[in-house]
Amino acid sequence: MTAAARQDEPVTAAHSAGGLAVACHRLIHIYPTASGDVVALSGVDLRISAGEMLALVGPSGSGKSTLVAILGGLMQPSAGRVYVGEHELSRLSSKGLAALRGATVGTVLQGAERNLLPYVSLSRNIWLAQRPAARLAGRRLDPPEAILDLVGLAGAGARRVGDLTPGQRQRAALAQGLAAGPGLLLVDEPTSQLDASGRDEVLAALAAVNGERGTTVVVVTHDGEVGARLGRAVTIRDGRVGAEGRDGRDFAVVAGDGTIQLPPETVASFPAGTLLEVDHTDESITLRAVAAPSSLGGDDGVARAGGEPRPSGS
Ligand SMILES: Nc1ncnc2c1ncn2[C@@H]1O[C@H](COP(=O)(O)OP(=O)(O)OP(=O)(O)O)[C@@H](O)[C@H]1O
């Protein structure tokens, strides 16, 4: 296809055949800065099945956006391995990463307007986003109108972003991210500017994308309700997977190096340096505090659970 291609000319590309699986192994990312290195990811172990929908939640600065930028091929990790489908991203050249961004992974940035050109129609926006995928050749992609229909914007192809409500804008941004038929859709804070009905429409659009196309969907959100509605919510804390919620139940997660992050409310009762005795059976692990940091020469008191901590060595 040439630069003079017409908008009604079919765009061809490797069509997404359902969703892509994702796997991160001990993923580390460090930003070098003038004032020293900033460790954004400190060993993320995470598996996402093909066709799964999940939320990445966690406090500000915990590393969610960094993880999404790596999954989206926007930057390479400092260490560790990350797979999207058959691609091991840290092995890809810059050309390989560009191809990944163009045809395999769709990324929707926070702030719907950042994803869309304001001076052309929604259809034209989507068609333009399909062109990098077209250069990689393959099968025919869905026409822009079909993608808009999928996200609940049927008949809106001629409209421009300025004509839309905030909820419609966010769904138009989703359509843009879906333009090339990606197997993985990454969406950063899609509901942060929306009221409850706008949020419901965006969640319905994501469910339609996932249900009808099988696309794997990862949503970064501060909204606990979004995490709950997606069924699986992975909490990133201090650059690692700290916990997981599944269908209303909360779980700690064993990392690849055998560590487990205690829930924040537990950390308050068991400060750093607390000695824990570990008992386990095939089905359970019991941690029992046997010595507080203060009894080991620290200056910290410790709240006690599972009995009064004994002095070290008793
Ligand atoms: N370009 C950068 N240069 C230096 N440090 C960065 C850069 N981007 C992020 N960081 C730092 O990396 C850490 C993780 O940031 P990141 O943006 O990934 O977290 P986040 O969980 O997405 O936060 P938020 O929810 O506020 O967007 C933070 O300490 C942040 O200050």
TrEMBL record:
Native organism: Micromonospora vinacea
Location of region: Disordered: 291-314
Keyword Cytoplasm assigned: no
Keyword Lipoprotein included in the entry's annotation: yes
Species lineage: Bacteria, Bacillati, Actinomycetota, Actinomycetes, Micromonosporales
Domain ABC transporter: 25-263
Keywords: ATP-binding, Lipoprotein, Nucleotide-binding
The protein, known as: ABC-type lipoprotein export system ATPase subunit
